[in-house]
Amino acid sequence: MLRQIKPKTARSKRELAKREPLAHENTKTVLLLRGSSCSSLVQDVIADINALKRPFSVRFTKKNEIHPFEDASSLEFFSQKNDTSLLLFGSHSKKRPHCLTWIRCFGGQVLDMLEVYIVKDTARTLSQFKSEKCKVGLKPLLSFSGTPFESPVANHYTLAKSIFTDFFRGGESLNVDVEGLQMMINFAAGEDAQDGSPAKIQMRCWRIITKRSGQRVPRVEVEEMGPRIDFTIGRTKEAEGSQWKEAMKKSKGVEPKPKKNIETDLVGDKIGRIHLGKQDLTELQTRKMKGLKRGRDAGTEEVVENVSVIGEEDGDAADDGETKRQRIA
After folding, report:
1. pTM (whole model) above 0.85
2. CB 157 within 8 A of CB 148
3. Going by C-beta distance under 8 Å and a sequence separation of 6 or more, which residues neighbour residue 35?
C-alpha cells in the first residue's frame, strides 16, 4: 500500500485533493491486468471486456506475479496509483484454468473479490461475430434472469450480480436519449445440476436495433454481437461488515430532505396535508354594507316610534271604557 504522505507542495496537495471522496463520484474506471501465466482465451476475453468498457478502462499487457487471494497488496498499489476502484485480473493454471478475478476496491483497499472460470467449449469472442458493433462509450442495459440472482440470502450469485452491475453500469445520467440505448448485456443463471455442481452464469451481449413500424412506436429487434461467455463460480471474498458499512455511507448533502405532510400516491400525484388551529368566530371579517353603517347624526337625534296600545284584553277595555296611556319608546 502507498504511504500516507503529508503534502509539501501545492501540486501534491491538489493531487491528494482529487483522490478525496466526493459527494458525486466520477464514473468508475476498470484496470485490466494479466498474470505471469495467462491463456490466449483469457487474453481475448480481457480484450473484449476492454472494448465494451472504453473509454473508462485501462489495460496493462505486461506480466504480473500476483495471487489475489493470497496477497492483494500489489492490486491495492495499482488501484491507488491509477485511481481505479475496479480491477479485472486474468490468469491460467492447471488447478484453475482460464480464470478471471473481479475485484472491487474502496479507500485503496480490496473490498470484495469474485473468481470465475471460463468454459472454453462455449466461449466466443467479439471478433467471431460478423454483425455490426455498437459505438464506443454507450451506456448498456443490464438484465439478470434466474432465481439465484433474486435470493433473499446473500450467496455467490448475489455477489456476482452486485459486482457485474458495478463493472458495466457506466456513469450516472439524469436524462436518457433513446438513440443511445443500443446495447444490452444479459446475465442468466439456471438451477444447480443434478450432480450438485453450481449453475453456470451465461453472459450474452446484444445490439438493439430500432426499425420503422408505420406507427409512432418503432419496432425493436436484438442481434447478438458478442462476446459469448459462460462462467463457473470459484472462490469468493466478501466484504467485512465495518468496511461494507463505510463503503455504503452517503454524504448528507446527496439525499434530499423529506418534506413534512407531503406524500405521493400510486398514480404519482402529490398530496399535501394542512393543519389549522381553532378558529375564533368573534374576529371573523364579515362583508361590509352601507345599510349596516351608522349615520353621522345617529348619536344626537332621538327617534320616537309610536307603538300600539298594550291592554290586557280587548273585551275588558271595551267594558271599562278606560284608555290606557301610550308608551313612548
Report:
1. no
2. yes
3. 63, 64, 65, 66, 89, 90, 91, 92
Cβ distance 138 to 183 under 8 Å? yes
Cβ atoms < 10 Å from Cβ of 153: 5
Q: How far apart are CA 16 and CA 10, in angstroms?
A: 10
Query: How far is C-alpha 96 from the chain's CA centre?
Result: 36
Side by side, which strands form the sheet with 30-35?
57-64, 30-35, 86-91, 99-106, 109-118, 219-237, 201-211, 183-189, 141-145
- Strand duo 30-35 + 86-91: pairing: parallel
pLDDT in tens, 102-142: 999 998 899 999 999 999 999 999 999 988 888 888 899 99
- CB contact set of 309 (below 8 Å; sequence gap of 6+): 323, 324, 326
Q: Which triple of cell numbers denotes residue 202?
A: 451465461
What is the CB neighbour count within 10 angstroms for residue 111? 20
Nearest C-alpha neighbor of 21 from the set 198, 296, 254, 287: 254
Q: Which strand (E) or helix (H) includes residue 200?
A: none
Distance CA 227, CA 49 (A): 8
Among 38, 81, 79, 84, residue whose Cα is nearest residue 62? 38
C-alpha cell at 66: 500476483
Quick count: other Cβ atoms within 10 Å of Cβ 185? 18
pLDDT digits (tens, 9 = 90+) for 155-177: 999 999 999 999 999 888 878 78
188: phi then psi, degrees, rounded to nearest 5: -125, 140
Helix or strand (DSSP H, E) at 244: helix 241-247
The count of residues in the chain is 329
Distance in angstroms (rounded) separating the CA atoms of residues 206 and 209: 9
Only one residue has cell 443490464, namely: 142
Can you tell me the distance from the alpha carbon of 310 to that of 104, in angstroms, rounded to the nearest whole number? 106
**Cβ–Cβ < 8 Å for 186, 140:** no
Neighbours of 189 (CB within 10 A): 22
Residue 159 to residue 155: CA distance in whole angstroms: 6
